[in-house]
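Hey, can you fold this one?
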Amino acid sequence: MNIEDELRGALDVSAPPPTTTLDHVLKRGRRRVFARRAGAMLGVVAVVAGIGIGATTLNHAAPDRMPADQPNEAPATVEHAVGWPRVSTPPQVPHGTWTPTVSAPAGWPTPTLPLCDTKAPSIARHVELGGELPPQEFVSTWLDQARKLLPGFTLGDAEVERARTEYRFDVSDSRGTGSIRISAARFAGTPLANADDTLWEAGDCEPARRLLHPNGSVAQLHSVRPYVPYQTLTQTLDVFRKDGLLVQLEMHNFGSPSYHVSDPRNSTSVQRAGRPTLPLSEEQFQKLGLALAEVG
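Sure. Predicted structure:
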């Protein structure tokens, strides 16, 4: 056997058993802790990245957020001032525009109001407007309800103008005093047919606004009409009740401080200017019409 064979024989033995020391255990433990922490960190990073991608996707899909106290600047589509819709029919063609006369008080706003023709109703009535005086109890009950509906106004007591069988009462606030006149009639036929028949009675250019009450009554609000002297404004609201009673409310921009009752006819005439505007908005006036349709 030569030297080469002896060396191969010396190396061809089992490897010595591994030796485990405390230093080896600590090193191995540190490596495992590091690997576990690294894996956890990678998992967190992946989760956060996933949330970020999901949130970005949702933000693109959802509408833009707006703080609760920031108003929406988009164009409004709801008409807040008036709740009753106009009758669906073509408007009249104006034949002119009203122009105030020299009797109009200086400094008052000049309304631009178109003028259109009036059309008298064609359905015959049992009692014409102003021919029937509503019972005092009926008017008082309605006025009590009206005061609840208009807490910011002072509504006077309804006084009878005997020659015309009508009531009138003042409507006042901090801007001045106006008034409302109440007259009545008895109609034949249905409330809706009579409302259609009187659609252009007040000389409106735009179709009147109308409420069809569930109890069968029909309320109809006409446009503002100007008169002289003193730039007098009037707006009419008709309530065709289910019991065949027509009650008309006529709102004016003048009240008892502006008109004089002349005897013996006991009729009123305007002696001085009232207030620049009507005392109630259309929405407030409509509340009174609704109450008239419901009062017993």
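The helical segments are 3-11, 22-61, 136-149, 191-197, 282-294. Let me know if you want another pass with a different chain boundary.
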